[in-house]
Design brief:
Blueprint lengths: L6 H4 L3 E6 L3 H10 L5 E8 L3 H9 L13 E3 L12 E4 L7 H9 L4 E3 L7 H14 L3 E3 L8 H12 L3 E7 L2 E2 L1 H8 L4 E10 L1 H8 L8 H4 E9 L5 H9 L9 E6 L2 H7 L5 E11 L3 E11 L2 H21 L4 E3 L14 H7 L2
Parallel strand pairs: 1-2, 1-4, 2-3, 4-5, 5-6, 6-14, 10-11
Antiparallel strand pairs: 7-12, 8-9, 9-10, 12-13
Length: 347
Amino acid sequence: MGDTMSEVERREAIRVGIVGYGNLGRGAELALHDAPDMRIVGIFTRREPEVLSRARRDDPAVADLADETAIYPLDSIRDFESEIDLLLLCGGSRSDLPEQGPALARYFNTVDSFDIHSRIPEYHAAVDAAARAGDNLSIVSVGWDPGLFSLNRLYAEAVLSRGKTYTFWGKGLSQGHSEAVRRVPGVKAGVQYTIPSAEVLERVRAGERPELGTRERHRRECYVVLDQGADAAEVERAIRTMPDYFEGYETEVHFITEEELSAEHSAMPHGGNVIRGGETGLTNNAVIEFSLRLESNPEFTASVLVAYGRAAFRLYERGERGARTVLDIPPALLSPRSPAELMRELL
């Protein structure tokens, strides 16, 4: 395996569109500007492009990029089929991606961060059918969980066939759960933190393999600003009983002011651990742990999307079609570096 670059690697930069410009879309723009082999065609938004342009000029993180990146209305995206190699779908999992994922996979190669674990199989099937119908390649459920943590669960289970795997999230602000909170009728704004049990985490790190229910591993804390006239009790009930997000968890709901939310909950840290305890040979214990500590959950997730976007386009150029997950992707395809360089410096 030599240093000769393939035809795919010699071609011009991968042309990327960003769909949606919340925290994740903003992070995707920043990550793409660090990618040596990719360039942004534009941001596609349901907002008025001029309104978003003005907001970007006032945002210190992207102000320098505000005049470089074109902004288009989302309903014009089909006009760009010949100008875009890949779309990064940066909408939410609860309402945006179930519709946008299959709809856009029919016309473009896509990567998304759909993160409702229990619904990934049905979402994958819908995107797969659309991508095959449109002769495209999509990678779904990309991020750190699902995503990098999924890979680490697989690696740990494959290596320690006798054992038990535990995943802990937090303490951190969950984008998906926060979005779900904000979509509850009566909620003006809000965030949600996932908090692991410190006692259980240390037991597992020490090699114990307890049987744990959902409530024993994590609890959830929500900080909510109510719409004027909203019923606090009804909002709390709706949050606590929400399937796929809060039902089955110990959940605390705190009602605060907009000023408190801005002052105390504007950062977006997160992280977590995948730990598997198992046995080798007859009685030898082993513990595998992978951990993340993130100051910006959306910026990190966006960076993972960009890496898998590179892999998606390479697979498309090889003739692959349909939907994939991170479990299907060869790791070398994530890197802009050549196979020879990866072997020499990372292997």
